[in-house]
Amino acid sequence: MPKYYEDKEEDGRACAGVREDFKACLLQHDCVIKEGKAPSECLKEGHCKGLQTSFFECKRSLLDTRSRFRGRKGY
């Protein structure tokens, strides 16, 4: 679910909600905090896989010409 804040600046980029949640998931994961690994290393280990897939689908829907009928995926 997307996180909403009252005093947050509006991000007009595509897939901003999924991007923010994906970033938060990676940076708050035990792999990064406790083990001190880079977020890219934690991605290779398979952490936050659901949000990674959602972000990929959202970005891919930007290039899909059928999305003008279906709308962008993500939030």
Please give the number of β-strands. Answer: 0
What is the count of helical runs?
5
By helix and strand content, what is the structural category?
mainly alpha
Helix content: 55-70%
Listing every helix as H and every strand as E from the N terminus to the C terminus, the arrangement reads: HHHHH
Mean pLDDT across the residues is 82
Report the end-to-end length measured between terminal Cα atoms.
9 Å
Q: What fraction of the residues are assigned to beta strands by DSSP?
A: under 5%
Envelope shape: elongated
Family: Belongs to the PET191 family.
InterPro entries: Cyt_c_oxidase_assmbl_Pet191
Keywords: Disulfide bond
GO cellular component, one term: mitochondrion
Record the SSE blueprint:
Elements (H helix, E strand, L loop, with lengths): L15 H12 L2 H4 L5 H7 L3 H15 L3 H4 L5
Helix pairs in contact: 1-4
